[in-house]
Amino acid sequence: MFYEISILLNLVLILYVIKKIGAESKNSIQILFLKSQLSAYKRKRKKFHTKPFERLKLVFLSYLDPNWIENLILVSPHTLLEWRNKKFKTFWALLSRRKKTGRPNIPWKVIKLIRRVAKENKIWGATKLHGLLLKLDHDICERTVSKYIPKRPHSPKKRLSWKEFYSLHADSMVVSDTLSVYSSNFKKIFRVVFFLHVGSRQILHFDIHTNPTTNWMRKVLKFAVRKQIQAGKTFHYFLSDNDSIFWETLYQILGKNRHQTQKNLSSLSLAELLRGTLGKDM
């Protein structure tokens, strides 16, 4: 009997202590809730704004204080409820966000390799560079390779420098020039025209005339072309200076287009060198 009474008294005591602690904790939470608002209210200016950390404190304490609506004086209850809803949006946005977006980054040494190879081989496209990188055990996408290739002009004629064009088409280029031969009393005797193959540095044909014309030049050029065809070779580019004997009609007859080139070309310098050598010998 006494044992049951002691157990009952202990339970009553425990419930009283729990109630006392709950009341004290409730009061302390209420005080903390009011103090957090007071600290923000002390710095109030003409236009009041709460800081993110203060909003977070008020939202957290509002869950612990059941009478938070009565103790809320800084903002309206509707505003605090909006902050509560916003925290769920922020939580799920952070949870669903990916750690890293997109494809993995390309190592910087691979990017430098792509740019260097593309610069040294300007006629190579992304497909060929991609195949080269696969042989070197760099597993990247072809579109990624095209992303790091330097931008080039749309016109194919502007992509190559003269040095690169010369190295690619030297076997199909013919250069021509003329020189005048004078007598001892500085009287012009005749003019010499020659045709030089740029790739092999071989003189294809030469001829002389006392009064050269465009018609004569056309016949000589056709004869040089015929000799070139008989030898099993063809040429696609005919280079000359701005001599009046090389008229626009001459290129139209040959079916070639005339293009203005820059000064001091290596192919024209070969013709000038041969012209100077022949002039000294004559």
Verbal overview:
With 282 residues, this protein is an alpha+beta fold. It has 3 domains: 2-96, no CATH class; 108-154; 164-281, 2-Layer Sandwich (Nucleotidyltransferase, domain 5), CATH 3.30.420.10. It contains 11 helices and 4 strands; from the N terminus they run ααααααααβββαβαα. It has a 4-stranded mixed beta sheet with strand order 3-2-1-4, with helices on both faces. α6 (126-135) packs across α7 (142-148). The longest helix has 41 residues, at 2-42. The chain is rod-shaped, with a radius of gyration of 46 Å. It comes from Leptospira weilii str. UI 13098.
H/E order of the elements?
Answer: HHHHHHHHEEEHEHH
By DSSP, the count of extended strands is: 4
How many helical elements? 11
Pick out the low-confidence regions: none
Give the C-alpha Rg. Answer: 46 Å
> What is the CATH topology descriptor of the largest domain?
Nucleotidyltransferase, domain 5
Could you tell me the mean pLDDT? 72
CATH architecture of the largest domain: 2-Layer Sandwich
Taking the alpha carbons of the first and last residues, their distance comes to: 148 Å
Approximate strand percentage: 5-15%
Structural class: alpha+beta
Question: What's the number of structural domains?
Answer: 3
Strand order of the largest sheet: 3-2-1-4
CATH class membership of the largest domain: Alpha Beta
Largest sheet: 4 strands, mixed
> Which percent bin holds the helix content?
55-70%
Cα shape: rod-shaped
Organism: Leptospira weilii str. UI 13098
Protein name: Transposase
